[in-house]
Structure formats: C-alpha cells, structure tokens
Request: fold
Amino acid sequence: MTKEIILTGITTTGTPHLGNYVGAIKPAIAASKNPNVMPFYFLADYHALIKCQEPERVRRSSLEIAATWLALGLDTSNAVFYRQSDVPEIMELMWMLTCVASKGLMNRAHAYKAATAENDQSGENDFDKGINMGLFAYPILMAADILMFNAHKVPVGKDQIQHIEMARDIAGRFNHIYGEHFVLPEAVIDEHGATLSGMDGRKMSKSYNNTIPLFEPEKKLKKLINKIQTNSLEPGQAKDPDTCTLFSIYRAFASSDEVLDIRQRYAEGIAWGEMKSVLFEHINEHITPARERYEALLQAPEHIEEQLQEGALKARAVSVPFMKELRKAVGISRISL
Ligand code: TRP
Reply:
C-alpha cells in the first residue's frame, strides 16, 4: 500500500506557544505515529527571511522549534523532519514554478494584498512601499515545498488555505505544459487551532503578541496565566465558560470529564483566582515531562542537528531524483554524456 504523504512547514521566526501546540504540533505528532502516513515536517527557514531580518532570531527559533517537536515525541523513524534550507532542490523547483505561475495570481494573494492595502490606507502613493519580492513570491516558495514531495494533504491554519489553492493551480499549469509530474495537494484544516484564545481573549497568535510560550519555565507560566484577562464577576456569581479565555485554554488540555466538571464549577461561581490556579496546575502537569526533555535537548544541540541531518538525507533521497526528472521535463539537461 502506498502511504499518504502529509506535509507541513513551520516558519522559524518565533517561539512555539500553546496555540501552536494545540492547533498544529500535537495533531502532527499524533499523525507521525500512523504507519499508513508518511509525514514530511520541516523548518521553513527560507520563509522566515521574508518577514524577519534578524539572523539571531531566525537561528534561535530554528533551534527552539526543532527541540520542541523532538521533546514532544515526534517519531523521526517514520516522519521526515528536516530544514527547508538543507534541501536545495526546493529552491530550484521554486524557479521552475515561478516561470509558470501567473503574476496576476500572486497579485491576489492575501498577504500581499493586506500589505498594499495598508500602504493605501496610510495615504502612501506607492502601494508597494516596503514590500519585498519574497513576500510577493511567498506562495510560490510554499508551492515548491509541497510539490517537491508530491504531498497529498497539507495541514494548515485557515489563513493558509489560499496558498494551497495556489499550489494546486501552479501544479496544474506545470502538468498541463510539461506532463503529469505533480500531485494536486489538498488543505486539511484543524478547527482547534483557531479557537485557542490568547492573554487578551483574541486568537492566540504571534501577530497579536498575546501568546503563552509552550515551554515557559514554571514560575513564568504561572505569572502569564495570572495575567489572562477575565471579566469582573465576583466569586460565587455564575460565570459563562463559553466566552471565557481561561476555559478555552483549559478545554484544549482536558478530557471531556474534566471539562464537564469545570463547567459545573463555573455554574457554581468559581473565583477567577481559583480558576487561574486550576488552569496553571493542569497545564503545568501536562507539560512538565516534555519541558524537561526540551531543556535537555537545548543543552545538546548536536543531537538536534543530527536528527535534522538525517531528515535532510531522507528528504533528498526523494528530491534529488525528482529534480533530475523535472529538469529533463523542462528541457534542461546535458547536451550529451
Ligand atoms: N506559510 C506557512 C505558515 O506561515 C508555513 C509553511 C511554509 C508551510 N511552507 C509550507 C505550511 C508548506 C505548509 C506547507 O504557516
């Protein structure tokens, strides 16, 4: 039986937070243990350069993200876990795809459109001010990531659906011109990702600056949880769990019995201070073993590097021969042996 290929990338610009864990990392690690699936998970470090020109930050983020996935038990004997930049064929493919992707399609990409709209709103004459070509071509790089390994399924957040559609479009054009080389990928949306709230009640996201880092040391985790915004209801007054940030985070880490129990306590008017300590204890207990492995991995970066190198070897066992085929398909090959 041929395995289903699932592929996803993580841009290396930040520290993994609870929202990343619940929405993306946890389900991806669960999938890495499924023998019918062949997962490709990678650090999208070339994507990082689009929005982050701080080398130290990109370097640190790559280390933290890799350590996080390994600490949480990614099965690297099944999953191919690698760094995008270790697979140069992806960059080569990007150019081939750039030459079949229509510019008009890229003009319609949300990230690019949002950037030009911002310039427009601030009264700027040049809508493209401050926008680099990396941002404009971002969907093509992402298409190259996906098509390089002929992924069937791509688990992503809702904001990335358009990019998967663009990858399909570009793959279809390439296939039409040069013959069937690429699988048309499909997006897989995980609903939990969008529902975990951050400190201020909005979706937990790097861009809102409201995140709780996953492996924050115990004391800091406690402090951050204490800062989560709540309403002003007094102890003893019934509270609504479904509009409460504390509850939304708790639920992501709890069994259905535990959730029922906490719902009951909201109805009985649990004090916010009490709920915060319940939440802290719960998350802390859940995370402590992985946090210990994470700390140990950060002390042994050579072990992380070794895993990534192994991953790159496995990835290139696919990408090198495939690139040979693609070069031939487009007419780039030696004149004679
Ligand atoms: N752009 C994605 C994000 O910001 C990360 C990413 C890069 C990705 N390449 C990918 C996701 C390929 C899925 C497939 O979330």
Notes: The mean pLDDT is 95. The beta strands are 4-11, 37-44, 80-83, 153-156, 186-189.
